[in-house]
Amino acid sequence: MTVPDPFADLLPAETASPAETVALGRRLAARLQPGDVLALYGDLGAGKTHLVKGLCDGLGIAPETVSSPTFTLLNEYDGVLPVYHFDAYRIERPEEFFELGYEDYFFGDGVTVIEWPERVAALIPEHAVRLRLRHAGGDVRQIEAAR
Ligand code: ADP
Ligand code: MG
Questions:
Q1: How many A from CA of 103 to the centre of ligand 1?
Q2: Cβ-based neighbours of 27, under 8 Å, separated by 6 or more
Q3: DSSP string, 48-90
Q4: Single pTM value for the model
Q5: Which of 50, 113, 140 to mutate to test the pocket of ligand 1 (most atoms within 8 A of CB)?
Q6: How much is the average pLDDT of 108-136?
């Protein structure tokens, strides 16, 4: 089944600074709907959290309040839509996601964004939009739809 790509005209993209990645996130945010799930793949420092800052900014959430929930697994922000920001980098057992009640978020009415989705691969819903961020030398980052 082909999931329609809400970002088809915006991606792939290349950014040359953290500010440009935040700006890209703001443009992507304009497309988001309640219930959307974004899985952000990419190495440490690829710019996932900067993209989330932009997504949040676009939804009326101050970007400086956004940081990777590396140790807490989940940050919640209140914007035009609620944003559920997951980071599975340090997850040790999948049960930790169940204990959080992740389904209420993934299948809820806010926007869910997940950093390190590969760590909880089996839990990523079918309807998730998958994006990949890549280091492309210096401060350049490539962002594209992943499959
Ligand atoms: P991740 O969440 O993928 O680990 P972050 O967004 O936390 O990545 O960090 C990205 C790091 O790379 C920051 O230190 C940022 O200043 C730096 N950086 C350099 N160029 C870019 C760019 N084009 N986009 C995003 N971050 C960049
Ligand atoms: Mg991060």
A1: 29
A2: 10, 54, 58
A3: HHHHHHHHHHHTT--GGG----TTTSEEEEESSSEEEEEE-TT
A4: 0.97
A5: 50
A6: 97
